[in-house]
Amino acid sequence: MTAYGMSEKGPVREMNEDSFAYEKVGNCLCLAVADGVGGEACGEIASRIAVDSVISEFKESLAFVKDREELPSYLKTVFNKVNIKILHDCLEHRERMGMCTTLTVALIKGTELTVAHIGDSRGYLLHGSELIKLTDDHNAAAKLVKQGIITETEAKHHPGRNRLLKVLGDNQYLIPDIYSYNINYGDLVFLCSDGLYSFMSDEQFKACTGERNNLKSICEKLIATAIEGGSSDNITVTIGKAEHLTEL
User: Fold this and answer.
1) What are phi and psi of 202, to 5 degrees?
2) Could you give phi then psi for residue 36, rounded to 5 degrees?
3) Are the C-beta atoms of residues 206 and 222 closer than 8 Å to each other?
4) Strand order across the beta sheet in which 130-133 lies
5) What is the pLDDT of residue 248?
């Protein structure tokens, strides 16, 4: 398995509310990143429940998904099961009421990539020299960009980027965005929190990826670049590489 991840609380925050995970499940590489929301309302617990639960669900049931076309429905079910776990935890621990989290998940099976996403953590694909954003942010600033009211550059510093429109921890049925892509062997898939991507340009991001066979080095360089760029948030990234299938 070729995957790696790192998380850093950053130079400003007192605690790290981000969580990540990566694991091989059958012949599928599973990645997850979650950015907890809530501060005193235990965002770090919500994010940890999210990534641990989604990997646990994959271990229990991903093998029963036989066709790629079944993945969207399956992932919606998984996201809602994880959401229910967060809500139940809030009921058991009343001091955690209101905790919530983003969740972005990637499944890499050979050259097939499926991404499921709620919130403003992001997925990226590095294909050759091209860096491709795979997900749409679910925050007020991104909505203004779609409406043509502000630019992508303005959105990075707009106060609306801190107002999430979709999260796990919401007491409703969730419909995550689901994306399917055909990729190439050797392509890199990145999942990251906004504390990373908001504080660097795409060119700076790509400049960190020179050692494509050293994912640890890439993670270290990305986090260092975000800190140099003035990141005021927790910083998390996990990377998976598309490789030939090997059944466990």
Assistant:
1) -60, -35
2) -70, 150
3) no
4) 3-8, 235-241, 188-192, 122-127, 130-133
5) 39
Pairwise CA distance, residues 44 & 99, whole Å: 9
pLDDT digits (tens, 9 = 90+) for 2-55: 999 999 999 988 899 999 999 999 999 999 999 998 665 689 999 999 999 999
Q: How many residues in the chain?
A: 248
Cα distance between the two ends of the chain: 11
pLDDT, averaged across the chain:
93
Domain boundaries, the chain: 3-135+161-241
CATH topology of domain 3-135+161-241: Phosphatase 2c; domain 1 (3.60.40)
DSSP letters for the chain: --EEEEEE-TTT-SS--EEEEEEEETTEEEEEEEEEE-GGGTHHHHHHHHHHHHHHHHHHHGGG--SGGGHHHHHHHHHHHHHHHHHHHHHHSGGGTT-EE-EEEEEEETTEEEEEEESS-EEEEEETTEEEE-----BHHHHHHHTTSS-HHHHTT-GGGGSBSS-BT-SS----EEEEEE--TT-EEEEE-HHHHTTS-HHHHHHTTS-TT-HHHHHHHHHHHHHHTT--S-EEEEEEE-------
What does the alpha-carbon distance between residue 237 and residue 218 come to, in Å, rounded to a whole number?
Answer: 10
Angle (CA) 130-133-137 rounded to 5° is: 165
Q: 97 is written with which tokens? A: 């009421």
Q: Render pLDDT for 84-116 as a digit per residue (tens, 0 to 9).
A: 999 999 999 988 888 999 999 999 999 999 999
pLDDT value, residue 174: 95
